[in-house]
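During the second half of the funding period, the structural biology subgroup turned its attention to how the target accommodates small molecules. The most pressing case was alpha-D-galactopyranose, which had performed well in the primary screen but for which no bound structure existed. We therefore specified the complex as follows and requested a full 3D prediction, including the ligand pose.
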Amino acid sequence: MSIAMTTSLRDAVYEKYREFHGNEPLLVRSPGRVNLIGEHTDYNQGLVLPAAIDKHIIVAIGQRDDHRIQLYALDQQESYSLALDALGRSPLLWPDYIVGVVQQLQQQGRQLAGFNLVFGGDIPQGAGLSSSAALECATAFALNELFELGIPRLDIALTAQAAENEFVGVKCGLMDQFASVFGQDQRLIKLDCADFSHEYIPFNNPDLRIVLFDTQVKHSLASSAYNERREQCEQGVAWIQQRHPHVKSLRDATLEQLDEHVKPMDATVYKRCHYVVSEIKRLQDGCEDLKNDDFAAFGKRMFETHDGLQHLYEVSCDELDILVDLVRDNDAVLGARMMGGGFGGCTINLVKVDEVQDVVDTVIAAYNEKTGRNAQAYIANISAGTHVVLD
Ligand code: GLA
């Protein structure tokens, strides 16, 4: 089903581009992501374990003869146009993800000319599946191809992250953009955000599925709370650093150091840092579980991550907690937790393949009863990262 959907999405984007501009576009596909474990660790130089999924943004792009950028969003059915030498924020919001990338490339001294770009996607928006990172990565990759800029993949991801940090204003880490650009079929990416080294971990257990439950809510404090968490982590590091100058991030910190130097200073900062230091360890242990094919142990850690995000990092919300609580005692669900930045979006669940339908039906009905809302369920298949669409 998803292949057919993606094919028709590709056709829709392609045909809209042809209708507007007549010439033959270059097509680029960039995926959304899931993250198995390691949440809010990326901007603390920790480890993350994401994977690209079979939901994408598709961009059609071609050169213009002038120095303008002409954009069209298929889903919103909105156009936006601006001059390359007068980049600025847009009230429509979606152009910012594209224009932010253009601005970064210009700041790097890259030679760009005018271009037309049409895009569409099947990544649910506001669901924490990184549709914005996918758009940024698709744009950076497409511009790199179109203008033959010779940018390596890592720099494409970093450029997309910088667009989000500096133009959009969310001080995110690199996880989403890295997963979108570096994803591989049926493999998780164990990314070390201290030096961007990474290894692929096969994830193809035929007995399990990754099921996402979408709360269908996105609370408005998400980006301000995100930036605040980041500052709290930096504050904790600053206190430790006064006595231990080699500690440059929470990646280098120990629980003992937190007890000694952060706990006496501020209870909230202590909770935040405690969660992060524990989560980095949990991810490392979780990778051992995966190597041993011990998905039950891995699933338990996912629940522990949720508990930390709920009570210590405090980035969950009632709707996410309800979705996790609904599967805690269900033997068909090995693990579940909120995923991504928080305050809405999805939970990620490891579910026994034969019981997926039962679990989905039960959870959706119970969630509706408790919240009056209709949750959506998606199966996430792990797939390839950003690439040119050749067919
Ligand atoms: C968002 C950010 C990521 C990461 C996660 C939390 O998705 O974009 O960089 O920090 O939240 O793990």
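Two results from this model are relevant to the next phase. The chain has eleven helices and 13 strands. The longest strand covers residues 50-63.
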